[in-house]
Amino acid sequence: MSVLAYESWAGHGPPLLLLHGFTGNRSTFAHLRERLTPHAEVVAVDLPGHGESPFPEGTTFASTLSALTALLDALGLPQVDVVGYSLGARVALGLAVESSARVRRLVLESGSPGLRRRRDRGERRRQDEALAARLEATGVPAFVERWEALPLFAGVRALPGEVQQALRTRRLAGSAEGLALSLRRLGLGSQPSYWSTLPGIRTPTLLLSGARDAKFTAVLRRMAAELPVVWGHVFSGVGHAPHLEVPDAWAREVTGFLSTPWIERPLVESDSGSNG
Description:
This protein is α/β, with parallel strands linked by helices. It is built from eleven helices and seven strands. Strands 1-3-2-4-5-6-7 form a seven-stranded mixed β-sheet, sandwiched between helices. Strand 6 (205-210), helix 9 (214-226) and strand 7 (230-235) form a beta-alpha-beta unit.
């Protein structure tokens, strides 16, 4: 079982697990530390192949979920709130499905429940394999340059230079081997499809996306129609990474959601005097 690197931020409130996106690491949300710690005790994790977390032979999407639950056990955390971005959102959803009792509330930013059809998953695995092979052949700097030029990240390219540089430094810190294995083993083609499980998820869930990210906003709306206990927010004028592009607005949505009291009351039969 993979041992995941992590760091903890002392704070006030329920424990909060942060899961970064592809090419990120546990520092992805560091700029939000002062906004989050008044509301939560934070654990930020390096997912397999990122940061200081290894990618042991045989690592899969399922074993990554097991590694997360093992980390929570080691930290003495029977239940946590979970925030995931992109790849991290897909992993967070998997954790809520496979270990529902461990997740108190769920925040998914620019995430997906997977691909419904086996044929589509197979095609995506072929695409991810080609991308992984290119990454191994050309190295991380060339890969990051192409990655940052994707239309998906247009909003990030409009951010101040120091923010972009911090993001680039984090991406360049990744290893070609780790990122390639992440593409092959944790990519969208390797993720189970969770679409059919959405109606059964009782965990209160917040879905976040940027309006300029039409693809993931459409996914958000389809997810919202399936989840029984769901809130959503689409950030106007924002792309794929609201936590970077509008951090103050993002933090307000997330901390407001996590802090709002929620009691699921059981269905109780009323005593109406019926003799039936």
